[in-house]
Write a structure and sequence with these properties.
Helices cover 23% and strands 34% of the residues. It is an alpha+beta fold.
Length: 106
C-alpha cells in the first residue's frame, strides 16, 4: 500500500470560529478549506463528546493538506484555538487514499 500524500484535517469549533481556524491554516500554508455549519444530535443523555458540547451549533472545517503540512498546521490550530481546554473543540486527521474531482490530482 502506498503512503498517502495528503491528509484531511477536520476541526470542530463553536459557531463563528471557523474563519479563525482558516486564518491559522492559511498562515501555515493551506490554500483553502470548506466550512460546514452544523449542530449536534445524539442520545438525549449524552451532552458532550471528548469534552465538546453536542447540543450547540458549531462549525466544522475540512482542509485537504499535503502530508508535510498537516502536523504543523494541526498543532498551530490546537494551540491557538486552545483545543486542549474542555469545550473549545477538537480536531483529527484522516489519510486520503484517493481523491477525484479536484483541479490538481493527489
Amino acid at each position: 500500500m502506498n503512503k498517502p500524500t495528503h491528509h484531511a484535517l477536520i476541526v470542530f469549533v463553536a459557531r463563528g470560529l471557523a474563519d479563525d481556524v482558516m486564518d491559522i491554516a492559511r498562515d501555515g500554508g493551506a490554500t483553502g478549506g470548506t466550512i460546514i455549519h452544523a449542530r449536534g444530535c445524539g442520545h438525549h443523555d449524552s451532552h458532550s463528546f471528548l469534552s465538546f458540547p453536542l447540543d450547540t451549533e458549531r462549525d466544522i472545517v475540512l482542509i485537504v493538506l499535503p502530508v508535510e503540512l498537516t502536523r504543523p498546521i494541526a498543532h498551530a490550530i490546537a494551540e491557538q484555538m486552545q483545543l486542549d481546554e474542555p469545550g473549545n473543540g477538537f480536531l483529527f486527521t484522516l489519510d486520503i487514499d484517493q481523491a477525484t474531482g479536484i483541479a490538481k490530482p493527489l
